[in-house]
């Protein structure tokens, strides 16, 4: 979304726009160990084309048989990736409908979503609603890691694009509360873009917005970190979570070389950005 024009993001264009979205919320990754016998491009091609004999996943059989094979250790990590994408394609209509129902509910009843929608509208943007908050299936992106040569499988929960609005990845949403955190995260990016005219190609600008979005959205609250992700410490847990998720999101950007580069940029802007809670008076949750 921008201050002058916001276009709806049609369902058919959502996944393509996600790949180019300036804001990316990473939701996990898988790596295929490097091989000395083939180049990165050859390994990438091999990874993208599922071979049941090599991976153990066979799309010609039922989902429960493949799932049993995964549980019994007969499917490689590569095969598990293909199984996951296969199931997402099968359940796309169901996932998108659930996402849209949850989105509409949150736009009516969620305090943080309603507050952020009001604040972005006050800055001169269009009202954030079903026309510019779109649910779609987001395929994982696979690319070689520049530093290690491993193949990275990057998944995302959503994205923000100044010219289109907010994308919610329906296939990655566990429940309505998870969707609320992701929606609030992207709404912080929309607010930042309108308030400060963020240059999303500048990694320092992007890192600052990622810090603020992870801090203010609620995705790093103690219950989410400890109960869902199994991460908890006695001190500095909230700060660790915000820093880690900002680094993950920055690493997924094409202009970022690797996690070392992302960490350096996040550290450079940390003090000023972590202390900025606008438009809230304090951290909401």
From TrEMBL:
Biased composition, class Low complexity, residue ranges: 12-41
Organism listed in the record: Sporothrix epigloea
Xref: PANTHER family: MITOCHONDRIAL INNER MEMBRANE PROTEASE, MITOCHONDRIAL INNER MEMBRANE PROTEASE ATP23 HOMOLOG
Similarity remark: Belongs to the peptidase M76 family.
Top-level class of the enzyme under EC nomenclature: hydrolase
UniProt protein name: Mitochondrial inner membrane protease ATP23
InterPro entries attached to this UniProt entry: Peptidase_M76_ATP23 (IPR019165)
UniProt entry tagged with the keyword Membrane: yes
Subcellular location: Mitochondrion inner membrane
UniProt-listed Pfam families: Peptidase_M76
UniProt keyword terms in alphabetical order: Hydrolase, Membrane, Metal-binding, Metalloprotease, Mitochondrion, Mitochondrion inner membrane, Protease
